[in-house]
Amino acid sequence: MKTPIYILGIESSCDDTSASVICDGKVLSNIVANQEVHAKYGGVVPELASRAHQQNIVPVVQQALEQAKITKEKVSAIAFTRGPGLMGSLLVGTSFAKSLALGLQIPLIDVNHMQAHVLAHFIIDDATTPPPFPFICLTISGGHTQIIKVTEHFKMEVLGETIDDAVGEAFDKSAKILGLPYPGGPLIDKYAKLGNPKAFAFTKPKVGDLDFSFSGLKTGILYFIQKQQRINANFVEENLNDICASIQFTIVEILMDKLKNAVTQTNIKHIAIAGGVSANSEIRNRLKLAEKHFGWFTYIPKFEYTTDNAAMIAITGYLKYLNKEYADVSVTAKARLKVTEN
């Protein structure tokens, strides 16, 4: 009888401390400790984030092991986020993973956070099916916006990416302009459901076929709001749902336009999404519609595997473990890491 492979995954790239245990590709636990401290600052404060990770990491790992109903001695290997992310936050997870792996005398596996977002699709779950190779993955988060061609688990090619701001930042900054609290992206999604997406028109940026730009759109939204508020001080309050619907419609149109171009250029019709912004309801709706309209096959992960979480780190670690791709204890965290770097 085959010995089960238990991978403990640790994620600490930004402001969420997470630990997960998977057994042979199935999630047994996925614990995430959110940090509330950043809301009053309107964004993540790196120094406060790394301090909170130090406080959270031991109880979070303990909780993950307890929920998985295993002891640390059963763990086959420890996977951790090496990068990209905030350096202070990454160091907490890296140091903890190294120490625990040394103490238990088990393999250490470094994981590229951006690859893990893509590979979350390979978590074994009755409710979802992994995409077949090759597929295109739209990776959308607070820090990244990329169209990636995936030909094998660890063979990825960036077809297009943002030349300035990420889509998650566009959502959050637009929300800030409207006076909504941080993080504002989910709130735009919430109010957009009640509004008219065609109420206000925003100009879509003109960049390459597969590249993105959101800086000009953010500026356009700011000037539009400022102009309307000079005419009517209560403009935002009176039109909040319509403004949110129009902003969301424009952003999702930009994403869908680029995906259509990618499908045309590659002739690949298996489309996956990954990253925190893939929790957005309008993006999910439009992808489902694309199956009917364009004959695409779309792969949408469960909500809990879209935002930063350790289950995606653990599944990536599991795939590396099968190939015996272990890290040396001298491995260091790296704040900047491309999705193509293993």
Helix/strand class = alpha/beta
Order of helices and strands: EEEHEHEHEEEHHHHEHEH
CATH architecture of the largest domain: 2-Layer Sandwich
CATH topology of the largest domain: Nucleotidyltransferase, domain 5
* Major beta sheet, strand line-up: 3-2-1-4-5
- The number of helical runs is 9
CATH class of the largest domain: Alpha Beta
Beta-strand content:
15-25%
- Let me know the average pLDDT: 93
The coarse silhouette is: globular
The value of Rg in angstroms is 21 Å
Number of domains: 2
> Mind telling me the CATH superfamily name of the largest domain?
ATPase, nucleotide binding domain
C-alpha termini separation: 32 Å
Regions with little confidence, pLDDT below 50 for 5+ residues: none
Number of strands: 10
Largest sheet: 5 strands, mixed
- Specify the helix fraction band: 40-55%
InterPro entries: ATPase_NBD (IPR043129), Gcp-like_dom (IPR000905), KAE1/TsaD (IPR017861), Peptidase_M22_CS (IPR017860), TsaD (IPR022450)
Binding site for Fe cation: 113, 117, 308
Binding site for substrate: 139-143, 172, 185, 189, 280
GO cellular component, one term: cytoplasm
How would you sum up this structure, described in words?
- The protein is an alpha/beta fold and 342 residues long.
- It has two domains: 6-121 and 305-322, 2-Layer Sandwich (Nucleotidyltransferase, domain 5); 131-300, Nucleotidyltransferase, domain 5 (2-Layer Sandwich).
- Helices cover 42% and strands 18% of the residues.
- It contains nine helices and ten strands.
- The protein has helices at 46-67, 87-104, 113-119, 167-177, 185-192, 215-231, 235-266, 281-294, 310-322, and strands at 6-11, 17-23, 26-33, 77-83, 108-112, 135-140, 145-152, 155-161, 270-274, 297-299.
- The strands form two sheets. A five-stranded mixed beta sheet has the order 3-2-1-4-5, sandwiched between helices.
- The protein starts with 5 loop residues before the first strand and ends in a 20-residue tail after the last helix.
- Keywords: Acyltransferase, Cytoplasm, Hydrolase, Iron, Metal-binding, Protease, Transferase, tRNA processing.
- GO terms for molecular function: iron ion binding; peptidase activity; tRNA N(6)-L-threonylcarbamoyladenine synthase activity.
